Amino acid sequence: MDPKDRIRLVVFAKLPKEGFVKSRLAQSIGERKACELYRTWVPPFIDHLLHNPSEFSVEVTLAVEPDWNAEDSLREAQEWIPGAVDWTVQVGDGLGERLTNAFEDQFNQGWNRVFALGTDSPHLSLQSLSPCFRCLEKSDIALGPTEDGGYYTIGMKRRPGKLFRNIRWSTEYTLADTKKSAQNLGLSVGTGPISYDLDTLEDLNRLLRERAVDNWRELDAILKKD
After folding, report:
1. Where are the domains of the chain?
2. Order of strands across the sheet with 87-89?
3. In degrees rounded to 5, what are phi and psi of residue 222?
4. Average pLDDT for residues 129-138, to the nearest whole number?
5. How far apart are CA 118 and CA 45, in angstroms?
6. Do 24 and 120 meet the contact criterion of CB atoms below 8 Å apart?
7. Are 194 and 188 in contact (CB under 8 A)?
8. CA 190, CA 182: separation in Å to the nearest integer?
9. Cα dihedral sign for 183, 185, 190, 196?
10. Which residues, in sequence order, are bridge partners of residue 10?
11. Chain-centroid distance, C-alpha 21
12. Between β-strands 151-156 and 87-89, what pairing exists: parallel, antiparallel or unpaired?
């Protein structure tokens, strides 16, 4: 199948190292436990994206944020999540540059419907992302908003250009800034259903209370462990 007939989903991930992941969550439960939780929830999330059916034809690539050495980071990531079909490395200083470079790379490969997705919402699935996929059929940009003013995914069918400049990342203004930037560039925006990221202990407790992932018991045991 030609790339133009499929969706490319670039999943942004970090290596599960203490002090490198989930800093806000770590403020409540400590860096070690926050890291262990992240290490535990990401692999089944990726597996679900790779192997569960969708009404759309979606191909997943994992983009890891390198820790010092890109080659070593890729090897560590592949040991952490074995069986993933495609890996790449995030390139750039700051999230804006990394997103821009990721989209540019995928468009250079011939894809014309590209989405970026974080690993902070393990309760999401291809099915729950489908409304965002459909948004891109009618808009230049598709956004999946989060309750805290950010977004869990962004999709584009053209190169980002200056879209990600001057965005106040990881704040309540991230979504609004991105929409304003798109408007300034003359790009139409569609939004999917609102969801949430696992940024705080309250978010994590909500995920466990709702049993929103299959391995919620394992996560709950980690959280309660001394």
Report:
1. 3-224
2. 87-89, 58-65, 7-14, 114-117, 151-156, 141-145, 189-191
3. -65, -45
4. 95
5. 11
6. no
7. no
8. 11
9. negative
10. 61, 116
11. 13
12. unpaired
pLDDT band at 4 (very low <50, low <70, confident <90, very high): low
Residue 179 tokens read as 């929409």
Domain 3-224 in CATH 3.90.550.10 = yes
58-65 and 141-145 strand pairing: unpaired
- CA angle, residues 52, 54, 60, in degrees to nearest 5: 70
User: What CA–CA distance (Å, rounded) separates 200 from 3?
Assistant: 37
- β-sheet bridge partners, residue 61: 10
Lowest mean pLDDT segment, chosen from 3-12, 27-36, 216-225: 3-12
56, 106, 108: which is closest to 86 by C-alpha?
106
**Residue linked to tokens 């203004």:** 173
Task: Note the pLDDT tens digit of each residue in 189-210.
Answer: 999 999 999 999 999 999 999 9
H-assigned helices in 141-215: 174-184, 201-210
